[in-house]
Amino acid sequence: MYEKSKGAEEKQRTAGELSTQYISKIKMPSSYTEVIDKLQTKFKQGVTKPLDYRTQQLKALYRLCKENEDVLVKAMRDDLNKPYFESVICEIEFVRNDIRGMLINLEKWAQQEYTSKHILLTFDSSYIQREPYGVVLIIGTWNYPIQMTLSPLVGAIAAGNAAVVKPSEISPATARVLEELLPLYLDKDCYKVINGGVVETTELLKEKFDYIFYTGCSSVGKIIRDAANEHLTPCTLELGGKSPLFLDNEVDIEVACRRILWGKFINSGQTCVAPDYILCTEERQEEFIQVAKTILKEFFGENPHNSGDLARIVNKKHFKRLHKLMASGSVAIGGVCVEEELYISPTVLINVKASDTVMQEEIFGPILPIVPIADVDEAIRFINDRDKPLCLYVFSNNKNVVKQFLNNTSSGSCCVNDTVVHLSVDSLPFGGVGGSGMGRYHGKFSFDTFSHKKAVLIRNFIPLLEKLGALRYPPYTDKNMEKLLVLMKKRSNFFPKISYYTLVFLLGIITAVVVRLTFVASGLTKYLPHPFQ
Ligand code: NAD
């Protein structure tokens, strides 16, 4: 079904139109070199490194998110008609929580991490020192325009870097708000927002950055990597792809269905980890459709078009792309499209084949195809025949089935019996593998991503140990080589692990023995308490 909107006067200004208007107003500097040079100078002066400074900037970013919640919510409504609930929970509060976590752990994570070493270096120190890379470039995407730009920025600031943030031009209202707000809260000399589209980003990528963090589609990911290679710049690529969902026959269908539909239709399916398609048996497909009809009514009412809880498609280009995908399989639920409002109703397609158009690209919209399969083995083969997904979802109560998927497939993450919520566990790394990306972030992983791990070894000048170490110097002898080989050989548990309390106990005994021997040697035993004489 392809409905026209009732009145032209109701027509929303689409993000696509906003985008074109906005980009045409951006004045591109003849070169970004001057901007980056200034940031480099500040970084080299050490401005961004002290923990106090990082804490202060993180707190300022927190205030930005708190004091401007309304402005940010409005911008995301303009760009995507994002519901208030989703703007707060999935974007603004997500970033605030990220900052809280960083502030709680910053001192601990920034500390030196002592490491083990071989016997010859027993009295020396070896540790990992995390140091900021320098000036980093963060390129964000439009679907979660606050989370995808500010969450990496939290990691960059916490690790002590200066940064350039390049929001997506496809979400122009949010891009503009970020450009206006960031300089009001953060140190303007160390953090810059640069707006623009492909032309500006291409120009920006000619500059030498110390790290590039990119979120977006795989085809542009390759362009970013090529540009990074030019300067040997390390990069993280947070990409997308098709995230499959396996639905077992035994699982509670009502709970499973509710969790699947929620994960699929938040932000109208424009979520990188949204379940892209379902693999299940034909009987499960039928049951799923029956239950899904009831649950979608529960979520969005009789007519989802009137619901305030459904975002719109970001622009006409994506709307048209999605509309074409509906020709695959047959529409069991939804299928309503209103171009003027960029509205597509929550849609479920059944009996979809692997060769159908909808299975050839990441859907990134409110369309959920079901591909019937015979069993677990076929599902695993289906997944392994394609690019490694950003996320794999498995709905099953059978531990063996879950194990089969975990052991026989590869994906950035795997969430069992739910969708999307694994992103809220920031003790887990978030990122892709193979076609779905490289690198990871969230929580400590963000801090580590933006930190170079410098190896440090500090040696001593103890004469006795120098004698032992002198085995390495010429003139080389077989005897010295043999000794060195023994001393350097890796051994498991060479030093038995003992608890703190055992160590204190042993030290207590040693001290008592040493004290007694000293008294005995000095002939002062009579001064010792009776039991020790
Ligand atoms: P997009 O069009 O907003 O592009 C992303 C960024 O790349 C933008 O800042 C844009 O200016 C820049 N860009 C676009 N074309 C460019 C070019 N030719 N040269 C240089 N820069 C260019 O977003 P998109 O690519 O449509 O994003 C959607 C994709 O992002 C989906 O595949 C989705 O799965 C993925 N995604 C991944 C994550 C993740 O965390 N892994 C999160 C969100 C989205």
Write up what this structure looks like.
The chain is of the alpha/beta class and 533 residues long. Helix content is 44%, strand content 15%. It contains 18 helices and 19 strands. The strands form 4 sheets. It has a 7-stranded mixed beta sheet, sandwiched between helices. It is globular. The protein starts with a strand and ends in a 12-residue tail after the last helix. Bound molecules: nicotinamide-adenine-dinucleotide (NAD). Nicotinamide-adenine-dinucleotide is lined by residues 139-143, 148, 166, 168-170, 197-198, 201-202, 215-217, 220, 223, 238-240, 272, 362, 364, 390, 432, 437.
> Which geometry do the CA atoms define?
globular
How much beta, percentage-wise?
15-25%
Strand order, sheet with most strands:
11-14-15-10-9-16-17
CATH C-level of the largest domain: Alpha Beta
Low-confidence stretches: 1-18
How many discrete domains?
Answer: 3
Report on the biggest sheet.
7 strands, mixed
Rg value: 29 Å
CATH homology-level superfamily of the largest domain: Aldehyde Dehydrogenase, Chain A, domain 1
Strand elements, count: 19
Total of helices: 18
Mean pLDDT, to the nearest integer, reads 92
CATH topology of the largest domain: Aldehyde Dehydrogenase, Chain A, domain 1
What would CATH call the architecture of the largest domain? Answer: 3-Layer(aba) Sandwich
Fraction of residues in helix: 40-55%
Oligomer: single chain
Which hetero compounds are present in the coordinates?
Answer: nicotinamide-adenine-dinucleotide
Family: Belongs to the aldehyde dehydrogenase family.
Organism: Limulus polyphemus
Protein name: Aldehyde dehydrogenase
Transmembrane segments: 498-519
